[in-house]
Amino acid sequence: MTNQFNEGTLRVQTILQQKGYDNQIVQLPDSARTAQEAADAIGCEVAQIAKSIIFRLEQADQPLLVVASGVNRVNEKRISELLQDKLGKADADFVRDRSGFVIGGVAPIGHRQKPVTLIDEDLFRYKTLWAAAGHPKTVFQLTPDELREMTDGQVVCVR
């Protein structure tokens, strides 16, 4: 691990250690702001990228974290119906204020404000996944079961 990691990445690493996980954070040579960029840098399938997307639950004024397979687009109408709340777009300020991360580096754990968390059921097709680790150039490997344990998220169809 290098000293180049930012506050968000250090927060993710600390949480992993405190919870007893031995997952290692990897620094990529290039940005991995998109699932395709991350998959190319790691050498895995795009579907194995657990992309963390923040929405704003409008009535609750609370962050919603959807961890989706890198190939899937979130069906906002389906999620809105499931949660009985309208999904609003989360701008960069909302994402940074509520999660503590910048867009492109949002990790599934370590948020400043605990979000409502939904996990894409399609991620469970793979033995290993890769998730952002608090910065657009950092990722960590985990299993779908670890993702569910770490986030206490609800597994749903997000498509």
Could you characterize what this model shows?
The chain is 28% helix and 25% strand. It contains five helices and eight strands. A hairpin with a 5-residue loop joins strand 6 and strand 7. Strands 1, 2, 3, 4, 5, 6, 7 and 8 form an eight-stranded mixed beta sheet that branches. The model has no long low-confidence stretch (mean pLDDT 94). The radius of gyration is 14 Å and the shape is globular. The protein is of the alpha/beta class.
Rg, rounded, reads 14 Å
Element order: H for helix, E for strand: HEHEEHEHEEEHE
Query: Which word captures the global form?
Result: globular
Q: Using DSSP, what is the number of strands?
A: 8
The percent of residues in helical segments reads 25-40%
What structural class should be given to the helix and strand makeup?
A: alpha/beta
Number of helices: 5
- Terminal residue distance: 36 Å
Mean pLDDT: 94
Extract low-pLDDT stretches. Answer: none
* Oligomeric status: single chain
Please indicate the percent range of residues in DSSP E strands (runs of 2 or more). 25-35%
- Give a quick account of the main beta sheet: strands, pairing sense, barrel closure: 8 strands, mixed
